[in-house]
Amino acid sequence: MPSPVDIGPRPRGLPIAPKAERSVRRLPLADEVRPIDQRWQPVYAVWEITLRCDLACRHCGSRAGRERPDELTTAEALDLVAQMAELGVKEVTVIGGEAYLRDDWTVIIRAVRAAGMNATMTTGGRGLTPERARAAKAAGLESASVSVDGLTATHDALRGVQGSFDAAMAAIRSLREAGIPVAANSQIGRVSLREMPELFERLVAEGIHSWQVQLTVAMGRAADEPSLLLEPYQMLEVMPMLARLKARADQAKVRIWPGNNIGYFGPYESALRGTLPRGHMASCGAGRSTLGIEANGDIKGCPSLPTADYVGGNIRAQRLRDIWERAGEDIPALSLKYAAKNPRHFKT
User: Fold this and answer.
1) What does the pLDDT look like over 201-239, one tens digit per residue?
2) What DSSP assignment string belongs to 1-37?
3) Please, which residues have CB within 8 angstroms of residue 278's CB and are 6 or more apart in sequence?
4) CA-CA distance, 72 to 317, in Å (whole number)?
5) What pLDDT is stored for residue 279 in this prediction?
6) What whole-number distance in Å separates Cα of residue 154 and Cα of residue 110?
7) In whole angstroms, what is the distance from residue 211 CA to residue 249 CA?
8) Alpha helix stretches (DSSP H) within the chain
9) Quick one: CA torsion of 275, 280, 283, 289, rounded to 10 degrees?
10) Which pTM value belongs to this model?
């Protein structure tokens, strides 16, 4: 898609929507559960309920587009909801791809709420019509976060669809009109960095209650396009900018949530994280308090971790509690259990 925004040439053969691999159904689990394996319990789950997507984002870490070939059935998804509640999960965020492209997305949200858990959603918003927003409200959705990654031209170029910025703004309004509180989330990359202050003002004007910011990282399609990524020296601009915006956010009564890859323990640590529920100097919760679920039932410590190296099991082959407490350390890289014992590996 032609764009006035210079985000570099597309690499040859960029797979916009490749066919995802099937899940690995059975990974080894430890024979016994030890006290260290039960020390941490997940309270927050981020659940990709489908990989199908109606955008073609150049920075998509999961290369979303087509649904996975072996996504969970409705019955399997509802059973997983029950297993999450039994394990102690308190909040479930449904994501994609694009969650609303799954026919039973409101059925899943309704089941999450019926099980006593909070239900939230993250969306690109391209097709989040007023009708879908009302359906989400009726199902019990409590909050939604709309992804907005720059001003109009930059956002449209990054998302691969002209008009996607306007659609995201319309989604925010549709959600608010349906009675659903709305947040926003933004990736900071090389071309969007200096648009963040103006973008934040636009989002404040739309009535958001929170703003999550994170860096674009070299995963998925973003790994194909280094021109999207910040140079290391640009972090010297990112951190003080976010600190200034935090002061503005406090004035506007908007909470800023820095992503874990924004970094820790710098001069703005207490300013950016001091008012968060866990306070500052608290590290990433991947594999300790956070659970990541892919649409085919693969379980990870966080949805942002690479699938090939971090899947600890699949709920079609093992119960969720067994995966959480007994994921083997002989999988290709860090397992959930290893993450729990070595949280320092998850600081970025």
Assistant:
1) 999 999 999 999 999 999 999 999 999 999 999 999 999
2) ---SS---PPPTT--SSPPPPPP-----B-SS--GGG
3) none
4) 12
5) 65
6) 35
7) 9
8) 74-87, 105-114, 130-139, 152-159, 164-177, 196-205, 235-252, 269-273, 307-310, 320-326, 336-341
9) -40
10) 0.88
